[in-house]
Amino acid sequence: MGELWDGFLKALELIYTFDPEVMQIAGRSLSIGLTSIVIGSVICIPLAGLIHFNQFWGKRFLVSLIQTFYSIPTVVVGLFVFVMLSNVGPLGGLGLLFSPAAIVVGQVLLITPILLGLVISAFRGVDQTILDTARSMGASGWQVAVLVIKEARFGVMAAVIMGFGRAISEVGISLMVGGNIRGVTRVITTAISLESSKGDIELALALGMILIFISLVVNIIMNRIQQK
Fold first, then answer.
1. C-alpha–C-alpha distance, residues 187 and 165, integer Å
2. What is the pLDDT of residue 9?
3. pLDDT-derived band at 124, boundaries 50, 70, 90
4. What secondary structure does DSSP assign to the chain, as a single string?
5. How far apart are CA 228 and CA 90, in angstroms?
6. In angstroms, rounded to a whole number, what is the distance separating the alpha carbons of residues 156 and 51?
7. CA 144, 147, 148, 149 torsion: positive or negative?
8. Distance between CA 195 and CA 221 in Å, rounded?
9. pLDDT per position as a tens digit, 52-75
10. What is the C-alpha separation between 166 and 215, in angstroms, rounded?
């Protein structure tokens, strides 16, 4: 109990004094997480629309497969990205391994099933009467799609929030393809892992509290936007 209290006090001290290293780690975690969710949203929201609005053979199986990957272990994604970006991999020539870009690639792959599955579910939740009314009034396919996105915006925002939470809290990908390099790829989760292994429980607890604080602030901002 004393370690938890000391960690809490240390977290407050680190935040209050804007400790340079901690702020750098927190800023890197936030920037990588936000970059990943923006890229993932740009890819997945239109793709989810294509899957939802079109009928094709194997659609139900595809949606089930997407949902199966909701809980894919981060180390599995990290291993796949590591192999792809290593010197023997097809993308090794890009030189992305052990860089923030490699972590972004891994996190985008990690959150893609979540974004796709939840956005498709949000689209499915739109009242069919609204769509039928729009079509009867002469709305084109594109206009109907825009209407569905507008009606499902709360579900889409919830998917984005969950995707961001999954990205910023993962550790396996960041360790495997980022390398936990100080000043380059060290993020809060990998720093927590490192400090715990060193026995510095207080600092690990402090970083954990900072991570929760960042997630809370981002979720509050997104919820405010959602409400407006």
1. 14
2. 79
3. confident
4. -HHHHHHHHHHHHHHHTT-HHHHHHHHHHHHHHHHHHHHHHHHHHHHHHHHHH---TTHHHHHHHHHHGGG--HHHHHHHHHHHHSTTSTTGGG--TTSHHHHHHHHHHHHHHHHHHHHHHHHHTS-HHHHHHHHHTT--HHHHHHHHHHHTHHHHHHHHHHHHHHHHH--HHIIIIITT-TTTT--HHHHHHHHHHHT-HHHHHHHHHHHHHHHHHHHHHHHHHHH-
5. 45
6. 15
7. positive
8. 30
9. 888 888 889 999 999 989 888 999
10. 10
Residue 75 burial (CB count, 10 A): 15
pLDDT given for residue 227 in this prediction: 67
Q: What is the number of residues in the chain?
A: 228
Per-residue pLDDT tens digits for 167-189: 998 999 999 999 899 889 999 99
Residue with tokens 């579910």: 121
Both structure tokens of 115: 């974004």
Q: pTM surpassing 0.85?
A: yes
- Whether the CB-CB separation of 70 and 113 falls below 8 Å is answered with yes
Residue 24 contacts by C-beta under 8 Å, 6 or more apart in sequence? 183
Considering only residues 28 and 136, tell me which one the structure prediction assigns the higher pLDDT.
Answer: 28
The domains found in the chain, sorted by start residue, are: 2-227 (1.10.3720.10)
Residue 118 has pLDDT above 90, yes or no: yes
Q: Which residue has the tokens 């599995």?
A: 76
